[in-house]
Write a structure and sequence with these properties.
25% of the residues are buried. Helices cover 18% and strands 30% of the residues. It has 223 residues and is of the alpha+beta class.
């Protein structure tokens, strides 16, 4: 019978401990989830949208993903909006325009979506100040679904939020994971975005953004 050395016993014990530690860490990663809140959490007693409560939820998401929380994200440039529908957990977002240069015709935007949150369906039309905006979306954290015009993706109706069931036009669905990039299919096309189950942080690269060019398919959306 071969002898068992003290070194081999210690080595085996250390290996087993490392494996158990790795398993424990993997389990913690699997159960770690972003906090979610009911819709009423984001509204004051008088029914008005509570911007500060909304921003606090996004700051939690920044910490969850270890996303760089720079000073500009605590100033007036960082905004959160419920688009006037009163359904922030369904239709809403936060964002910051890092830059928006009309003369050079380029734009940099960060999009922040909580879990299951929708940017309402919209298009960008031509205006006296801008050609129809063209966009691409680069997922940094979490994941999102993007939607554009064309032959509907099978089963897409089940994922259209209730507020947009009757007006949604963009039903071609594509899931984007971290590092992946999606694109607007063409000028003035209808499109929207939906946050994944752990939200999404998305960098948008685009041509100049003119707020006057925005058109929403939902008649009650306000921007």
């Amino acid at each position: 019978m071969s002898s068992i050395s003290r070194r081999s016993v210690l080595g085996g014990a250390l290996a087993a401990s490392a494996a158990m530690l790795g398993t424990a860490k993997a389990q913690r990663r699997r159960v770690r989830k972003l906090n979610t809140y009911p819709n009423e959490h984001f509204y004051k007693a008088d029914g008005t949208f509570d911007v500060e409560a909304a921003k606090a939820a996004y700051y939690e998401m920044f910490r969850f993903y270890r996303y760089p929380d720079c000073p500009r994200l605590h100033g007036e440039e960082f905004w959160a909006i419920d688009f006037g529908l009163g359904k922030f957990t369904e239709v809403g977002m936060a964002g910051i325009f890092w830059l928006n240069r009309k003369e050079q015709n380029y734009f940099g935007h960060e999009i922040y979506l909580l879990p299951g949150q929708m940017i309402p369906e919209h298009s960008h039309v031509k205006t006296p100040d801008a050609a129809p905006k063209i966009e691409s979306w680069h997922v940094r954290h979490g994941w999102v679904n993007i939607y554009g015009e064309g032959t509907p993706t099978p089963g897409v109706e089940a994922r259209i939020p209730p507020s947009h069931k009757a007006c949604c036009k963009a039903k071609v669905e594509k899931k984007l994971m971290p590092g992946e990039v999606g694109h607007l299919a063409g000028p003035e096309q209808w499109h929207w975005m939906l946050g994944g189950d752990q939200g999404g942080i998305v960098t948008e690269y685009a041509t100049y953004h003119d707020n006057n060019a925005l058109r929403f398919s939902h008649p009650d959306v306000k921007f």
